[in-house]
Amino acid sequence: MGKLLYVCCIMLLLLQAGLASKTRHFKWEVGYMYASPDCEEKILLGINGQFPGPTVRAKAGDTIHVELKNALHTEGVVIHWHGIRQYGTPWADGTASISQCAINPEETFIYRFQVDKAGTYFYHGHYGMQRAAGLYGSLIVEVADGEEELFHYDGEFNLLLSDWYHQSIYDQMVGLSSKPFRWIGEPQSLLINGRGQYNCSLAAHLMEGSSACKLTSKDCAPVVLRVLPGKTYRLRVASTTSLSSLNLAIGNHKMMVVEADGNYVEPFIVDDMDIYSGESYSVLITTDQNPSSNYWLSVGVRGRKPNTQPALAIVSYQPNSPSKLPESSPPVTPKWNDYNHSKSFSYKILARQGTPKPPSYADRQIALLNTQNKINGYIKWSINNISLALPPTPYLGSMRYRLKNAFDTSKPPENFPSDYDVMKPPKNPSSAQSSNAYVIQFNSTVDVILQNANALADNVSEIHPWHLHGHDFWVLGYGDGRFEEKDDSKFNLENPPLRNTVVIFPYGWTAIRFVADNPGVWAFHCHIEPHLHMGMGVIFAEGVDHVRRIPKEAITCGMTGKMLMNNNLP
Ligand code: C2O
Ligand code: CU
């Protein structure tokens, strides 16, 4: 009898757990489609005929099940779930040549993974430059049933920011790998939830009633945030730009930053916020301004001399008509090269109390020098003088099954020459391509020092937002110039923020720490699409022997991968 009661209890518990977390099913088809995201018609990558792709909403603990069909005629595709750590499912990370083979045209791949932590995330293509062709969408994870958010709000809005080029990604890729090099230039427009206005200042247009903006297509009508006076709203902001670093501000309203990359931060108040590609934030705004007016939300370019109009949205206090013109002009984006402004924003981001603290020391330190180089006259980006070239057979399968000749097994350097002058162009700009990977002891703690430097031209050093797959990391500190051994005494071990993306400022360094506790092969790279395409990334592999149940279709491509086809995989 007692035993029966026990069994019943267990079954009840299981049932409860089953009820609390759901599996959410999606059936998607990726295809090219016509759209006019900035009022000019182009083709782009959509999902089920939508651009941006459908928003995925789930609760912490849920399982996401996406049946992804590649409906492109002649190219492969994959989708990466940016910010989701993929514990136990490294094959679902959606990185071509790293976690899986690109999905062939007409074929379907199933992504099944758990979203374990509430926060603001997104997904995007991770093959060639497909993200820049429009393959992206939002992924919002709410707190689990029965749990409460740490802060109160009355409503929320989701703003997915991107930049948009009229030139196709093929044109862009050919230019980047041509001699002479052809740079992609600045984007034609900035998009908010896939909408922008090319070559038209919306504000000026509406104020003067000029006809410069052809707002004929509903694809490019500005986003409207309908709010009620006297309330608090959560804005979820994420950036999936190809190139641009952005700044967001709302006329007359302050913002309180509460979340960064799916982790709570110690709340702080700002007038404007920077956001780099790969980052996400939640900010709270209070609608405490004159309710008879509407207000502009403006998004402009930072860190590069802008040649793109700011994107605008309208915060409309109800019951005002959304077409009622805001009384004050749109907030002005801080000067593009005011890096002190950017630094002061980054330095304010600290972990909220209760955030797990980093281990107090690291088992290994890897210093990564980011340089611009030349390989046989082609311009590339390199890390410790190696430009990443991905192998045909994905690392995950070839490492797990110890395939021979699948990638370069030499050890990438842990450091760079101590006499390298980061303030000057490289003395010898030549470099080499490789597919080698950093193999990391399972469960060890790793520090990475990202060191920025001067590019090929004099007096140029760019912003690079670095993104780590499979992990959150602690941001231990930033500094100007070259990192010195003694700088680690200044690391913040008290309340460093946990993030998945962090910026390195021009001529500066950024230090991060993470625990290699997630068996798999993970990309760590600059989130600027053309930079990654030009080799700006590295590969970390950890605990690969612990990986189980890799789907066959994720690994059986390339010469070596095909050898697995007839083998019986365990
Ligand atoms: Cu959102 Cu590997 O990137
Ligand atoms: Cu970069």
TrEMBL record:
Protein role:
May be involved in a redox system involving ascorbic acid.
User: Which of UniProt's keywords are assigned here?
Assistant: Copper, Disulfide bond, Glycoprotein, Metal-binding, Oxidoreductase, Repeat, Secreted, Signal
GO BP annotations listed = negative regulation of defense response to virus; response to hydrogen peroxide; response to virus
* Cofactor dependence: Cu cation
Q: How does it assemble?
A: Dimer.
Query: Cross-referenced PROSITE patterns, in alphabetical order?
Result: MULTICOPPER_OXIDASE1, MULTICOPPER_OXIDASE2
**Where is the signal peptide, in residue numbers?**
1-20
Under Gene Ontology molecular function, one entry of this record is: copper ion binding
Primary enzyme class: oxidoreductase
Coarse class of the primary localization is secreted
What reaction does this catalyse?
4 L-ascorbate + O2 = 4 monodehydro-L-ascorbate radical + 2 H2O
Name its species: Ensete ventricosum (Abyssinian banana)
Concerning Pfam families, the annotation shows:
Cu-oxidase, Cu-oxidase_2, Cu-oxidase_3
Keyword Ribosomal protein, does the record have it?
A: no
Entry GO terms, CC: extracellular region; plasmodesma
Give the enzyme's EC designation. 1.10.3.3
Which locations, inside or outside the cell, does it occupy?
Secreted
Task: Please identify the protein, giving its name as recorded.
Answer: L-ascorbate oxidase
UniProt lists the family membership as follows: Belongs to the multicopper oxidase family.
List, for all copies, the residue spans of the domain called Plastocyanin-like.
30-142, 157-319, 428-543
Report the domain of life of the source organism. Answer: Eukaryota
